[in-house]
Design goal:
MoaA-like; 12-stranded mixed sheet; alpha/beta; globular; 11 helices; GTP binding; single chain; TIM Barrel
Length: 335
């Protein structure tokens, strides 16, 4: 990948925008209850999803503005055909120096050698429990063995692995310590995420397990957490534990304590630009790309959207129209 270019893109609060989370599909092969209803969600017709060529064009424009990191998300990215060749083309875009991926791991293991050859720097693996029965209950699919195959294949390849575990009251609290114990012998970061309301319905999380309680629970079982410095824009508070090879991360995704340094933007699979996870979408990029807009016109529209970015997730939520106060499925917005 090419060397990074200095960021020249800032929002109206002076925060550099260097990181794009790009959803390549809204489809998923799991049915995690905190993400979508058991029957699934109404997927976008395939012709309404951005093509790979449209995504490449947009990434090229954004890297020209200073975006230097792209993380592919979904849905589940590997549900979409020809993902790895698409990633190879992204990796060749000048200015992009960090290409990474978030996956549930069910279909990923066979592609790990190709990801390593492409220079993929990190893979975030969604894994809420190491117990097979609870995994099947949470995801409504009995796929834990294949996810663990992916986990160990990634470790063997040398790709940095971060486990993302959503903390759910009454569902996987007994799994927090076993997941954290993976850091004792393995060079992995296990990140515990506050539950959010993005489940495809109107339910709002009451959050009995916030970031403070998560830390207290883990420290009571594992010992003192030693804070580790993190770069500006990081969502996780990171900690080391004496005698552990890996690290622990805690993400205050519902409490939104990290908004002040947020450097990321999101593009949904159908081309909606989100400058905050909690906003309703601020620009229809697909309409620009398919309406004959020039690169200069698309670039100016993006810059204009960034001039009105919410200060934090609470302001973004307040701006949502009343008829959109129920939250989308995380599968549709790319996490």
């Amino acid at each position: 990948m090419a060397d990074a270019t200095p960021s020249v893109l800032f929002d109206n609060h002076g925060r550099p925008l260097e990181y794009l989370r790009l959803a390549v599909t809204d489809r998923c092969n799991l049915r995690c209850f905190y993400c979508m209803p058991e029957e699934g969600i109404k997927y976008m017709p395939k012709q309404e999803l951005l093509t790979y060529e449209e995504m490449e064009r947009l990434v090229g424009l954004l890297t020209g503005l200073g975006v230097r990191k792209v993380r592919l998300t979904g849905g589940e990215p590997f549900v979409r055909r020809d993902l790895v060749p698409f990633m190879a083309r992204l990796a060749a875009i000048p200015g992009l120096d960090d290409l990474s991926l978030t996956t549930n791991g069910v279909l990923t293991a066979p592609h790990v050698p190709e990801l390593a050859r492409l220079g993929v720097k990190a893979v975030n693996l969604s894994l809420d429990t190491l117990d097979r029965a609870r995994f099947a209950s949470i995801t409504r699919r009995d796929e834990l063995p294949r996810v663990l195959d992916t986990f160990y294949a990634l470790l063997a390849s040398g790709i940095q692995v971060k486990i993302n575990a959503v903390v759910m009251d009454g569902q996987n609290i007994e799994d927090l310590v076993p997941l954290a114990e993976l850091t004792r012998e393995l060079p992995v970061e296990v990140r515990f995420i506050e539950e959010m309301p993005f489940n495809g319905g109107s339910h709002a999380a009451t959050l009995p397990w916030d970031h403070r309680r998560i830390r207290q629970h883990l420290e009571a079982n594992l010992g003192e957490f030693i804070p580790v410095p993190t770069p500006a824009g990081a969502t996780a508070s990171e900690y080391s534990i004496a005698g552990h090879q890996g690290r622990i991360g805690i993400i205050a995704a519902y409490s939104r304590t990290f908004c002040g340094t947020c450097n990321r933007i999101r593009l949904t699979a159908e081309g909606g630009l989100k400058t905050c996870l909690y906003d309703q979408g601020v620009l229809d990029v697909r309409a620009l790309l398919r309406g004959g807009s020039s690169d200069e016109e698309v670039t100016e529209a993006l810059k204009n959207a960034f001039r009105y970015r919410a200060a934090n997730g609470f302001e973004a939520e307040q701006r949502r129209p009343v008829h959109q106060l129920s939250f989308e499925s995380m599968s549709t917005i790319g996490g």
